[in-house]
Amino acid sequence: VAAYIVNLKGESSEGHRLILTLHDLTESRRMQQMRVDFVANASHELRTPLAILIGALETLMGPARNDLEAHQRFFTMMQAQSLRMSQLIDDLLSLSQIEINEHSRPSDRVDLGQVLQGVINLLTAKSSELGKSIALQMPEDKVFVTGDFDQLTQIFTNLIDNALKYSREESEIRVEIAVAAREARATVIDEGEGIPEEHLARLTERFYRVDSDRSRKLGGTGLGLAIVKHIVSRHRGHLEIDSVVGKGSKFSVRLPLSGS
Ligand code: ADP
């Protein structure tokens, strides 16, 4: 916002004063554009599985009405598309819930090792199905951060789930906790395909994907890292992403230690 006072020299010696106030609309236009894009993207993401569901129902009620073998295939497909929509709606709701609370800083004392161990326990079955393993390394002393247990769980569920999705077959995912300079650092390292540098800055944008088809096939909604970014910011933390194409990626979350 800029304000200018302009003296208009009229006939009277005092003159007239005109105050011009100029508002910089760039930022608010950008925010508005982002909101419009978000609604358009979300609608598109929901419409695709819905179109498949409608098509499948029409086939089941029409040409494939008496084809029992086709019924099974269509039901499996309809189940997958319904789950996709349900996951997307869950992620959209999580995102809006996080945004509502974004300005209130969480204040619980949370054992970071317990969070990570819990996430790893939940993902172990999926990991072994994929022939992968998850190794956790942490200091002997417990590491406590100030935060919200469920939201911290969500951060690391998203990061470790991505590491499982985008890493090579039979590879290992390493999860490390370290403490330095009044901060805790939790890092998820995969031996995966890596991410080309030009994508790194945009990865945490909603619906941004390096390869959309691949992400969808793997059950991704394109919202996981946007959710991570918002939770990390609510915790006054930092997210760092390092990646080398063909070698793998490293996602580090720095969080303030409890009591610091
Ligand atoms: P998605 O649901 O598509 O996985 P995310 O927001 O979690 O959405 O991630 C955005 C994109 O970042 C992914 O589509 C993928 O292209 C890329 N990505 C995320 N994590 C990794 C990883 N560990 N290795 C390689 N690419 C990744």
Automatic annotation (TrEMBL):
E.C. number(s) listed in UniProt: 2.7.13.3
Protein keywords: Kinase, Membrane, Phosphoprotein, Transferase, Transmembrane, Transmembrane helix, Two-component regulatory system
Protein name: histidine kinase
Reaction catalysed by this enzyme: ATP + protein L-histidine = ADP + protein N-phospho-L-histidine
Residue ranges of domain Histidine kinase in the record: 41-259
EC supergroup of this enzyme: transferase
Gene source species: Sneathiella sedimenti
